């Protein structure tokens, strides 16, 4: 189950933990803040995408599709999606604004015993020059990110993942999972 909440005891209104149970019975524990920006809580779309990463349609047969792959999560907030990917053996960089770095690092630390790949938090402010990032990742993951489809359609192809391929329990007609691929260049480089 992904829904249970645990209070932190000290100040139940300011801090609480979201529990995200994996199919194998292990549990990701995600610290959230009761106040702050949108990145301070685990949103339903992050749970739906995290659970989709566990489905046979995504994970494949044998080794998980993310095993030994590089993953960049944009707008990570609490880091739920990136941490889930790291539990499947991915080498993950979770990114968000400076003010969310402490929360990301806290959640990485709380779940490091489940990580079979690697995970690190970095500041990434969209539209600014990026430094200190490795070569392009194998996967870019984002949940509840706002984008302008018209602009992305110039360079990317979109495929909507049908609802029946989402996790059986964690799905919603209001939450869409898109597989976005960079279009192949029409001209040789």
Summarize the amount of helix as a percent range: 10-25%
Task: Please give the number of β-strands.
Answer: 9
Tell the overall outline. globular
How much of the residues is beta strand, in percent? 15-25%
Helix run count: 5
Radius of gyration: 17 Å
The description of the largest β-sheet is: 4 strands, parallel
Short description:
With about 190 residues, the protein is of the alpha/beta class. It has 5 helices and 9 strands; from the N terminus they run βββααβαβαββαββ.
Secondary structure: elements and pairs:
Blueprint lengths: L4 E3 L7 E7 L5 E7 L10 H9 L3 H4 L10 E4 L6 H7 L4 E6 L4 H11 L6 E6 L15 E3 L7 H4 L3 E5 L17 E5 L7
Parallel strand pairs: 4-5, 4-7, 5-6
Antiparallel strand pairs: 1-2, 2-3, 8-9
Helix pairs in contact: 1-3
Task: Based on the model shown, name its key terms.
four-stranded parallel β-sheet; 5 helices; 9 strands; 19% helix; globular
Q: What does this protein structure show overall?
A:
- By secondary structure, the chain is an alpha/beta fold.
- 19% of the residues lie in helices and 24% in strands.
- It is built from five helices and nine strands.
- The strands form three sheets. The protein has a four-stranded parallel β-sheet with strand order 6-5-4-7, covered by helices on one side. Strands 1-2-3 form a three-stranded antiparallel β-sheet.
- The protein starts with a strand and ends in a 7-residue tail after the last strand.
